[in-house]
Structure formats: structure tokens, C-alpha cells
Design brief:
Blueprint lengths: L14 E7 L2 E11 L2 E10 L6 H14 L5 E7 L4 H6 L23 H12 L6 E6 L5 E3 L2 E5 L4 H12 L5 E5 L6 H7 L3 E6 L8 H18 L13 E3 L2 E5 L4 E5 L11 E6 L7 E4 L5 E6 L3 E2 L4 E6 L2
Parallel strand pairs: 3-4, 3-5, 5-9, 7-8, 8-10
Antiparallel strand pairs: 1-2, 2-4, 6-15, 7-9, 11-17, 12-13, 12-16, 13-14, 15-17
Helix pairs in contact: 1-6, 4-6
The protein binds zinc ion.
Length: 312
């Protein structure tokens, strides 16, 4: 049982906002809280992937902790964006099989998942100067906690990113290069800093994973002045710029090895074979580094990421 579980009073500050997605009528939980002083607009999302529960739990607790408006600015929290995925206990949106996290800024008249992202962006993210997106290992995934930050030419976004690193937002940071047309580049053009935090694995709900998320969120809040500046780690984070992926080459079986916080080049990651047992192959780590996430369950599909290792 979680130590800090809570419930709201009958009059919850979280509203169930109607949204029509792909012809389905959804109700999506949203807390839109005005702070006591003027300041930045910040969006926190959980459940972009519908089966990543420590991010969802952390988002609900952020609402609970900030519901009295004791901060400067406007705080919008959507604890479960992908309500269809949450309902089906899977990462993607089951209506069309697409992943909301891979779509930006969505389309009003697009696929159901494009409509869902468009609903989020047009109503909330477009007003924000910071978007914190809380993830975790999905039901099938092991994961070491880390935060994705993004390189950018936008001065304000870069200054915010540097502050978060300095305050120790996470002990492991993956710094993605700015790529033209990417989600984070489009957000930076809008003046919005995007942060994707990962904490928790296998769809589990563990107190430490939830608290780690909340600490990272508060560091980011401090970096934009929603609350006073926070510092959680005196050690600077390990910053990685390169990630190497192992992907499945065909539909078959994957037998994962046990993976820890670090890995050495040549360590066994697992083995795969076809469904008839043929083409068995042992898969080794191509680099020494930090495993970010890896698949622990047995189904392998062509193109599945079986292991992602940050190495440089
Ligand atoms: Zn995720």
C-alpha cells in the first residue's frame, strides 16, 4: 500500500472535461489551478502512455499538494491524458494503435490519437512555457529512472533547461539534440520547455518512484519561478548525448536477461528466436553505459525496442 495515498473531498478541484475523440465521448481529468500571484503557465501530464502508473500517481499528488494555489502562475495538470489506453491497460491509444507521445501538435480532424493530442495542445499546452510529461516503464518494460531534456536554439528554453540540470532534476539526464520538425523543437519555437521524466518500471506503483517524479517536478517548477528555486542533488547529473537501441528483427520470442543500473559492452541482453524455435541468437550490449529501458516480457515484434542504452 502506498504511504501517501489520498483522496479529494467531494468537491474535487479536478474536473472531468468532455472530449470527443474519434467519435467516442471521453471524460478527461483536468485540474486548472490559478496561483495566488502572477507567474508562468505550467502543464503537467501523466498517462500519455496509458499503463505508466507512477507518472499518473505523481500527477494526482501534484494536484493535491498545489490545490490551494500557493504558487505564482497557473498550474494545469492532466493526470491521465490517454484515457482510452488507461482503460485498456496499454501504452498506445487502442482506438487506432497510435502513441500520443509520438504525435505533435495533433489535428482536429485527424486520427483519434491526433484528435486527442490536438485537444491537449490547443486547450492547455499552447498557453504553457513549461510542459512536464511524466512517464514510467510500461507493463512490459524494466527501466532506470532518468529525465529527457532537449537542446534548443531558443534562449529562454535553454536557460530553463540549464537551471534544471544545475538543480539536479535527475541523476541521469539524456540530452536529445535539437532536430528540425521534432516535437521538442516545435515546442521550443512556441517558447515552451518540454521535459519528459521516467521513473518506475513494469507498470508497478512504488512509493520511491512516485516521490522521485514529484522531486523532479518541483525542480522544474522552481526553474520557471512557479515556486522558489529547488535543489535536490548536489552531485551534477550524468548527462548522456547518445543512445544505442537493440530492436527485434522479426516477430518471435524474446528471453530477456536480468539488467541492472549499468552495463558493460559484451554483456548478454537476452536471446531471441522465431516462434518455431529457429534462428536463435544471443544479443550482446554494443556499448558500455546506462540501460534506460528494456523489454522484459516474451513477445518480440519486428522493430520493438528490446533495450535502450545511454552510452556517451
Ligand atoms: Zn512512456
Amino acid at each position: 500500500m502506498l504511504e501517501n495515498f489520498f483522496s479529494f473531498q467531494k468537491q474535487s478541484i479536478i474536473k472531468l472535461v468532455p472530449a470527443t475523440i474519434g467519435g467516442f465521448s471521453l471524460k478527461i481529468p483536468v485540474a486548472d489551478i490559478q496561483g495566488l500571484a502572477p507567474g508562468p503557465t505550467v502543464v503537467v501530464t501523466g498517462g500519455m502512455d496509458g499503463d505508466e502508473y507512477s507518472g499518473i500517481e505523481a500527477a494526482y499528488r501534484i494536484v493535491h499538494q498545489f490545490q490551494n494555489g500557493d504558487f505564482a502562475g497557473r498550474l494545469i495538470v492532466v493526470p491521465i491524458v490517454n484515457i482510452p489506453g488507461f482503460g485498456a491497460e496499454c501504452s498506445q491509444c487502442p482506438i487506432d494503435g497510435q502513441f500520443p507521445k509520438n504525435i505533435f501538435p495533433g489535428k482536429a480532424q485527424g486520427t483519434p490519437t491526433e484528435q486527442l493530442v490536438h485537444w491537449l495542445v490547443s486547450n492547455y499546452v499552447s498557453a504553457a512555457e513549461l510542459w512536464l510529461d511524466l512517464h514510467a516503464g510500461a507493463i512490459t518494460e524494466g527501466l532506470n529512472p532518468f529525465v529527457y531534456l532537449f537542446e534548443t536554439d531558443n534562449d529562454r528554453v535553454r536557460a530553463c533547461t540549464e537551471k534544471m540540470i544545475e538543480a539536479g532534476i535527475s541523476s541521469i539526464v539524456v540530452m536529445e539534440p535539437s532536430r528540425w520538425g521534432s516535437k521538442h523543437a516545435k515546442l521550443a519555437e512556441m517558447g515552451c520547455t518540454y521535459v519528459l521524466a521516467e521513473s518506475g518500471s513494469r507498470g508497478n506503483l512504488k512509493e520511491d518512484d512516485v516521490l522521485r517524479h514529484i522531486e523532479s517536478v518541483k525542480v522544474a517548477f522552481g526553474a520557471v519561478g512557479l515556486i522558489p528555486a529547488q535543489k535536490i542533488n548536489n552531485e551534477p547529473p550524468a548527462i548522456f548525448h547518445e543512445v544505442v537501441y537493440v530492436t527485434g528483427e522479426f516477430d518471435g520470442l524474446w528471453r530477456a536477461a536480468a539488467i541492472g543500473a549499468t552495463i558493460q559492452k559484451g554483456d548478454v541482453l537476452g536471446e531471441w528466436c522465431r516462434l518455431d524455435g529457429s534462428d536463435k541468437k544471443t544479443i550482446y550490449a554494443a556499448r558500455s553505459g546506462c540501460p534506460l529501458w528494456w523489454k522484459e516480457t516474451m513477445r518480440m515484434q519486428e522493430g520493438d525496442v528490446l533495450c535502450a542504452i545511454a552510452w556517451k
